[in-house]
Structures are given as C-alpha cells and as structure tokens.
Design goal:
Elements (H helix, E strand, L loop, with lengths): L5 E6 L7 H11 L9 E7 L8 E7 L2 E8 L9 H6 L6 H5 L4 E7 L6 H21 L2 E6 L4 E3 L1 H9 L8 H4 L1 E6 L10 E6 L2 H4 L2 E7 L3 H18 L8 E3 L5 E7 L9 E6 L15 E3 L3
Parallel strand pairs: 10-13
Antiparallel strand pairs: 1-5, 1-6, 2-3, 3-4, 4-5, 6-7, 8-9, 9-10, 11-12, 11-14, 12-13
Helix pairs in contact: 1-4, 4-5
C-alpha cells in the first residue's frame, strides 16, 4: 500500500518564506503535536517546467516534506476536478479565479505502511495549515483526494487532529453519480471516494441507495473516519454496524467504475431507523450471521 500525498496552496501573491519561519510557526501553533518536531533540511529550486522558484525540504520523525513556491497560477487541470465535485464550497471556482501564485506541498518519499501514511498525511496537513497563516492563502487543494477547501476551514479541520478527529472532508473527495432509473422511475445516487486508497489500499463505492444525500454523506464520513484510523479496510462480506435497523454490507471488488482501482463496495441493506433510534456517527463492525 505505498502512498504519497500532494497538495497545493493557491495564494493571492507570489510571496515566499524561509524553512525556519515555517517550522517555528508550526511548532507555535501545535506545540504538543508529535508531528511538529519539524526541522529545516535543505534549500531546493522548483523544476523549470513548474516555473522555477525557491523551495526547501523539512523533516519530522524521519519523514521529509517538500515545499515549493511557484510564482504563477495553479494549472487549471490541477483543480478542475475538485472544483467540479465539491458539495461543501460553492464559491470555490470564484475563489480560484482570484489567485495568482501557488505553493506545492508534498511528501518527499513513498510511505510504505499505514502508520506512515497516517502520520505523513497529518504532518502535511499541519504544514499546510501553518502556511495558510503566513501567506495570502486563497484555497487548499488536496490533490490526493481531489478536494478543495477554504484556508480557514482547513485550519479548523487540522486542529481537530489533536482530538483524534480525521479531517475526512479535507482528505477524501466524494463524487456523486446518478444511477440508471429503477422500476419506480427514481435515479438513486452512487457515491465514489477519492483519497482513501493511500490508507486502506481501496476506495469506497456506495451502490444505489434509498437514503437521502445528507444521510449518505454522514454514513460515508463515519466509514472513512473509522477506516483511515484502523487502516485494515474491513473483511469481505462484513457489515458496518449503524443501528439495529440499518446495516451496510461490504464487498471487496478488484475494480469498480474506475478501471484498476480496488474498491470496497457498500450496500445499504435496510432503511434508517429514524428519529427513535439515531445511528452513531462512528461505525462499528458486525460479523455476518
């Protein structure tokens, strides 16, 4: 399950800063976070095809992170998909029209294990959050998950890492697709994730479901939260326990709607229990039978 993480910070101007300034700010913002023992390593330069520009490498717990400052707007194909699929930031397209430069933030090496992936994503998020306080930030594009987030929202979500809350909406993109009409003429929703594979080796595909979109999003967010933390992906044919009245069956598929991408196919097997029995937000597990 080798993983790498890549993100962009769109900015309103081509400002730069030093590695020492970034490390000091990160430590000041999260003094107790183990990922924030950041230290500068070396200065580098962005490749010519990116427009050149200064950059540097920092290190935390033997993992390295690259920060490159590029004095040109982010190429449109780098943020077109996140802007298209976001359901939580309607103003993303307008915001991106105002940016004039960007910063590339990435893990420098492949992360081979689940703990390394979780640590790397967390540290990268904390680095980005610190950058949003030092630069004229416009938007955070988490390329690995095809998400786009306002800088202040990204900072708030990252702070929740210290309370063991995974920033699912910032790390994982949800693409909503209408299925073919059923016998009743309804077109239920299929939901695909992007950005979960680095943690569990698979993405989620939620097959057409009778649940309304808000409830689907709640179920998926809870599932992603649990899976990212555990990293084990759930056994084939297990169910994710939601309530006595609702179970979500998990099936492993070598690929789903996207060729070559292994998936956890989720199927809602019963309707929601309703207000008398509210489902917990964190998913448990039930063995078949």
């Amino acid at each position: 399950m080798p993983a790498r993480f890549l993100a962009y910070l769109a900015t309103a101007g081509a400002e730069t800063l030093s590695a020492a300034t970034l490390c000091a700010q990160a430590r000041a913002m999260w003094p107790g976070a183990p990922t924030m023992d950041l230290k500068p390593l070396l200065a580098i330069t962005a490749p010519e095809e990116m427009g050149g520009g200064p950059g540097f490498v920092v290190e935390a717990a033997s993992q390295r992170y690259t920060i490159l400052f590029v004095a040109t707007p982010l190429p449109q194909d780098a943020y077109a998909s996140p802007v298209e699929i976001t359901r939580i930031w309607p103003g993303a397209r307008i915001a991106m029209a105002s940016h004039s430069a960007h910063v590339v933030i990435a893990t420098s090496s492949t992360l081979a294990t689940h703990p390394q992936a979780l640590y790397g994503a967390s540290a990268l998020s904390l680095i980005i959050a610190a950058l949003t306080t030092l630069l004229p930030a416009v938007a955070v594009v988490w390329s690995t998950g095809e998400t786009i987030t306002p800088p202040e929202t990204f900072r708030e979500a990252t702070l929740a890492l210290q309370r063991s809350r995974i920033p699912v909406a910032e790390w994982v993109g949800f693409r909503w697709i209408q299925a073919e009409p059923n016998l009743q003429g309804e077109r239920p929703l299929v939901v695909l994730t992007t950005g979960l594979e680095p943690f569990i080796g698979r993405e989620i595909e939620l097959v057409p479901s009778p649940l309304p979109p808000a409830l689907l999003l709640d179920r998926l967010t809870g599932a992603c939260q649990s899976l990212i933390v555990s990293g084990d992906g759930v056994a084939n044919n297990d169910t994710l326990g939601v309530s006595h009245a609702e179970r979500i069956r998990v099936r492993h598929r070598r690929e789903g709607l996207r060729p070559g991408v292994p998936v956890l196919e989720l199927t809602v097997e019963a309707p929601d229990a309703g207000p008398e029995e509210e489902a917990p937000r964190r998913f448990g597990r039930k063995r078949p039978g």
